[in-house]
Design brief:
The structure is a single chain. With 227 residues, the protein is an alpha/beta fold. The protein has six helices and 14 strands. The protein has one domain: 4-Layer Sandwich (Metallo-beta-lactamase, Chain A), CATH 3.60.15. The structure holds nickel (II) ion and manganese (II) ion (MN). The site of manganese (II) ion (MN) has 6 residues, from helix 1. The site of nickel (II) ion has 4 residues, from loops.
Length: 227
């Protein structure tokens, strides 16, 4: 599995011979200016919730690539009705579906969800992805929540993408507790530095994780890791 950071909560993951793109927010993201969205290929676009900083580039990438959208029922309907993107797979909280790259569970998130034009964005969510190459959690935007304790009962995670920027989501201290709840010590940071409200001291964040015997990783925008 090859995992590439495109900034904020946007990740590109190659797994099972397919490419998944999560929460594309690239062209409005000043710190992701080096990413060329026209070079991004993907078979699926997974959307955790309707906020602009998670859906801004869905339309252009979906129309260029014809990738299938995976999200909650309301978001899939919104893109079909408002953007004429009908290649979508609607889900809702707690449900799972077997795709050709693996099984996706649309899991909870403690947050809000509204589309850029103010329409209902359904309930915010996160993704649990199980594949032959490993399992991972894209937590979306969320505060620390007890539901995370359910995840190790569902699957063993190989890595987790957790928001750590605070203010709109959980911060570092909560992410350390989340790592315990999900029983995963391979934590990759996301949702930081994009706006003034979520600027993070990376050295301090890493030190806090290390003080608890854990590791937090920051992947540079445009950089990849293999797992
Ligand atoms: Ni949000
Ligand atoms: Mn966000």
């Amino acid at each position: 599995m090859k995992v590439t950071n495109f900034g904020h909560a946007c990740w590109h993951i190659e797994v099972g011979g397919k490419s998944l793109l999560f929460d594309p927010f690239i062209t409005p993201n000043e710190i992701a200016a080096l990413v060329d969205i026209n070079s991004i290929e993907c078979d699926y676009i997974l959307i955790t919730h309707g906020h602009e900083d998670h859906v801004a580039d869905v339309e252009s990438i979906a129309k260029r690539t014809n990738a299938k959208l995976i999200s909650n029922f309301e978001i899939i309907n919104w893109f079909a009705t408002n953007k004429n993107i009908t290649n979508g797979h609607p889900m809702n909280i707690g449900g799972k579906w077997k795709f050709d790259f693996g099984t996706v569970t649309y899991f909870t998130a403690q947050h809000s969800s509204v589309m850029p034009n103010g329409d209902n964005g359904g309930n915010p969510g996160s993704f649990l992805v199980e594949t032959d190459e490993g399992n991972f959690y894209h937590a979306g935007d969320t505060g620390l929540m007890m539901d995370m304790k359910l995840i190790p009962k569902l699957m063993k995670l190989d890595f987790a993408l957790l928001p750590i920027g605070d203010n709109f989501t959980m911060g570092i201290n909560e992410a350390i507790i989340a790592s315990d709840f999900i029983e995963c010590n391979n934590i990759i940071a996301m949702h930081y530095d994009t706006f003034g409200y979520i600027v993070v001291d990376k050295q301090q964040a890493k030190a806090k994780f290390e003080a608890t015997g854990k590791q937090l990783r920051f992947i540079e925008i445009g950089e990849s890791f293999n797992i």
